[in-house]
Amino acid sequence: MQTDPGNSADRQRGVLIPVMEFLGRHEPFARMDPVHLEFLAKRLRLVFYTRDEQILNPKSGPADRFFIVKQGRVLGESLDPNGNPVSTAWVLAPGECFPIGALLARRPVKTRYRAAEDTFCFEMDRDDFNHLLKMCPEFHDFCTRRLASLLDTVQRHVQFSTASGLGGDTSLNTTVGERLQREPVTFRPDAPIRRALQAMQDERIGSVIITDDEQRPLGVFTLHDLLKRVALPEIGLDQPISAVMTPDPVTLPSSAFAFEAAMLMASHGFHHLCIVDRGRLRGVISEGDLFSLQRVSLANLSRSMSQAEDVNALARLGTDVHLLIGQMIAQGVRVDQITQIIAMLNDQLTRRIITLCLHETGGDIPEFDWLSFGSEGRQEQTLKTDQDNGMLFLPQDGMTADQIRARLLPLAERINEALRICGFPLCRGRVMASSPECCLSLEEWRTRFSRWIDQGTPEHLLKANIYFDFRVLYGGEQPGAGLRAWFLEKTSKNSRFRRQMAENALRLRPPLGLFGDFKVSSGGGRHPRSLDLKVNGTTPFVDVARIFALALEMPDSNTTRRFEACAEAGVMKREDVAAWLNAYHYILLLRMRNHHEQAQAGQPLSNFINPERLDELEQRILKEAFRQIRKLQSRLALEYQL
Fold first, then answer.
1. Confidence (pLDDT) at 163
2. Model-level pTM?
3. Phi, psi (degrees; rounded to nearest 5) at 399
4. What residues have CB less than 8 Å from 476, skipping those under 6 apart?
């Protein structure tokens, strides 16, 4: 190891400029105040490490230096009890720093750091690191929320680029309390309708709230109520407003986020919500208050789907869905929330298709539940998705399962074809309700699931990964809930089956080479020099979350909520879960943005992305996300001793 001569405190400004310029090209230093950046640059010393030279070791005692890679690469290696390297946990490139966790915790490092090639590192003493941590908010945020801090930066870049030209305040991550524009206009229940209408005209508002003497909301009166309950029935305008109001209005506290209000309006078809704190009305928020850019309204799109008169009308709404998702990205909506929005819209579209097909079919159709599997079952759909669905039915007097199935399959074919027309390709694996294998009685589903769990062949494991993540989209909840409770109990008691699932999950390794570079596809084919963000990116997270959920009998199928439940149950550390979810959501964001850009360009949607087209920061975060997959898979391997 060689250190450059000279004391960092005595360096001249001219010497500091190249150092500050280097730091300014990397996060979090690019966001630091110049005073803080100069403080850092003055206290750095440049150290040279030859190839294979050890920099830090778990046996070196508590970490006492902060490192920034200047040139070359540094390997982080996991060691066995004898100190021999087991695997490369990560590779650090220029601009990246270490060992932050050990410095914060005042402990030794957990991995060995070694120079992968001749390498220069900037180093700073721990006392100076701690001082910078206290004086610089951006540095503190980065060190305590490393991956999350980088993701915040990328999210702002994505939001800005998508919002360019849209204009307006686009955030849906503010609270509804911050969105309130004015004091609510209220009336007592005995006020005449005429007074309420005059106030709506004078104030140019679309609703008034009916309250009691304590300002507790009793009802809401809107323009829709005026048409439906006053004009059409020809009710006298001197009647009390309580006779025509919509009682028991849906409310939210002022601390709720605008995203929650938007989802609630869309799911119920409302245009207004009462904001209530401690039982008292604080204000009214409208859809217009939430969206300053009104190209596509979530509530209006949802309502259009529920009122569509035929399949072609539903199909025409597909363009609006893509435009809406672009708006959501521009509005800074979290990617997990966007997938929920897509799932909600797809749910509504599917239910409307089922209703239309039932009406067209006519006749006496046996009762059934429509099941969604896979990404729709988990509420994690992106813009690229095919059909994964099925039917569940109960025995009926005088009819065998085969007879009921024969009655349902023609309807299922109509529904699957209608979904295809609306932009959901037919499943190439025939995981669709129109397949006899996916149109089963409750007992037949149990028999099928039981065979997979008991035998655990590779084909069974693949099917379990699809079918075990299901929701009921149409019909009664009880049969589906009963099926879920039954197989959760069975899988929680079958550690052999879960171990087989774990072995299968560990076959999907993150696409990182030995020295931390991306392992991309070959130059030929439809997607040259690309990574599959689904197979090698999001799927490993989904698989591990599922296995832990099965072990703990968690009924929720959503990956994010499964991880959060694992943290609540104490089987995973909260800080680990936070890092894994940040990585998972970042890869989801890349997939979502990729699909949005492909749709805008009129290209076929795919999950492949060329990492060379990402900027340096995005590449760095993607590599870190893949490293988190390695850590997660190591946690799974430890759990099942693989």
1. 43
2. 0.68
3. -130, 135
4. 367, 369
